[in-house]
Amino acid sequence: MNDTGSPAPREPTLSLEEADHSRRMRERVVAAIGAAGGWLSFEHYMDLVLYAPGLGYYSAGARKLGKDGDFTTAPEISGLFGACVARQCAELLARLPGASILEVGAGSGTLAADLLERLERANQLPQRYRILEISADLRSRQCEYLRWRVPQLLTRIEWLDSPPAESFDGLVVANEVLDALPVSRFCCTGAGVEELGVVHEKGGLRWASRHASAALAQACAQLAAAAGPWDDGYVSEYCPRLRAWTAEVTRSLRAGAVLWFDYGLPRAHYYLPERSEGTLLCHFRHRAHADPFLHPGLQDITAWVDFTALAEAGAAAGFELAGYTTQTYFLAGTGIDREMQEMAGSDANRHARLANEARRLMMPGEMGERFKAMAWMRGVDVELCGFGLRDLRHTL
User: Fold this and answer.
1) If you ran DSSP here, which 8-state letter would residue 386 be given?
2) Cα–chain-centroid distance for residue 31?
3) Measured between alpha carbons, how far is 27 from 4 in angstroms, rounded to an integer?
4) How far, in Å, CA of 131 to CA of 134, rounded?
5) Mean pLDDT in the chain?
6) What ranges make up the beta strands (E) of the chain?
7) Burial of 6 (0-12, 13-18, 19+ CB in 10 A)
8) From CA 196, how far away is CA 18, in angstroms rounded?
9) Nearest to 169 by CA among 226, 98, 110, 228
10) Over the stretch 183-240, which tens digit does the pLDDT of each residue have?
11) Angle 348-362/79-93 helices, nearest 10 degrees?
12) How far apart are CA 223 and CA 217, in angstroms?
């Protein structure tokens, strides 16, 4: 029974193929633990189960997004999200002739299709629409979807294995990508900071700790200083790859903006003492839970984004922090009401459906407050409409 007195939801049943896939992924993890001397950092574990070629969650063939997958992102909820992001992109494309868009991790391809359709109607198409996608499975699904949605624009679309080598003007767009970067997991104790890792005991994967490295201990000291002292037993996560990874995927942008959309908080709120179990969360068939060792290779593992760290990463990479706000205010600033009217026309039923979708995107109890938008900019001076209604940069 759960705390409401109702029966707890049943654990989804795995098919034989899924069970075999997860078994092989688990064997890969156990081998990595053995090669590491019996203890594997959680960062390494998360990297393996999400990205190991052919076995990791984002590398294998199961459907991940949408109603038949494990979770739903804003573009799958409504085309209103992509239409509003397109309005923001159009502002910049109008100032940068010959500009291109680079989307990092395009998921199902829905956002790419929505952006291209809306920009085509606005006569503001990018010269190229590049998709940086490391998953061969997702790349295949994106190609199939875009061939169906925007066949007339396929010649503008290009898939990349790594960031473009040549410089370009335009935009980099990333929706729900940062939350899947592997994180280190730590625990604050009376004796200092311990790093949480993974061991294989009694036939299962288990948490185990060891004394944190000097680098992790120093990072934790900086995090604690921003949010107040932590009690003994405080657990959270830290993303050591964030600065280097974001610098790498944006390094080719000569003039333009980077738009980040994800769930997260400023550092002072993220690491509050009362948030004592961190933000690590797993998704499997639209069931959210906190066990990262359940069905390795079949479930998503995420952690919220420290947006203060993201702003610091932008400054280190040579960008100006041009905006930070909630998804609610970004969508309002980019004219979601106008987009609803344009999409619905005189169809009252269509307008009602779009209004319901907009509520899911914008209400505080849904995605509106949990999800944030951040813009980095360099080489161009544009007032971004998506960040004009409410400026939250001071909270970082």
Assistant:
1) G
2) 29
3) 38
4) 10
5) 92
6) 40-41, 100-104, 129-132, 157-160, 168-175, 184-189, 192-201, 204-211, 234-238, 253-265, 281-284, 287-289, 300-302, 305-306, 320-326, 371-378
7) exposed
8) 28
9) 98
10) 999 999 988 999 999 999 988 999 999 999 999 999 999 999 998 799 999 999 999 9
11) 80
12) 10
**DSSP readout, 88-100?**
HHHHHHTTSTT-E
Q: What is the pLDDT of residue 345?
A: 92
Chain center to CA of 18: 25
Q: Quote the tokens at residue 209.
A: 């700790």
Residue 172 DSSP SS3: strand
DSSP letters, 248-315, are HHHTTEEEEEEEEEEEEE-HHHHT-TT-TT---EEEETTEEES-TTSSTTTSEEE--EEHHHHHHHHH
Domain boundaries, the chain: 17-72+99-254+266-323
> What residue type is 277 in one-letter code?
E
Q: Which structure tokens are listed for 149?
A: 């949605």
Q: Give the tokens for residue 350.
A: 């269509």
Do 371 and 365 meet the contact criterion of CB atoms below 8 Å apart? no
We find that the CATH architecture of domain 17-72+99-254+266-323 is 3-Layer(aba) Sandwich (3.40)
Token pair, residue 198, equals 């993974």
Label residue 192 left, alpha or beta by phi (over 0 means left) and psi (-120 to 50 means alpha).
Answer: left
5 Cβ contact partners less than 8 Å away, ≥ 6 residues apart: none
pLDDT digits 0-9 by tens, 332-385: 999 999 999 999 999 999 999 999 999 999 998 889 999 999 999 999 999 999
Three-state DSSP class for residue 354: helix
Token representation of residue 113: 């299709």
Q: What is the Cα–Cα distance from 302 to 294, expressed in whole angstroms?
A: 14
In terms of Cβ atoms closer than 10 Å to its own Cβ (0-12, 13-18, 19+), residue 375 is buried
Neighbours of 121 (CB within 10 A): 12
Distances (CA, A) of 1 to 6, 80, 269: 6, 38, 32
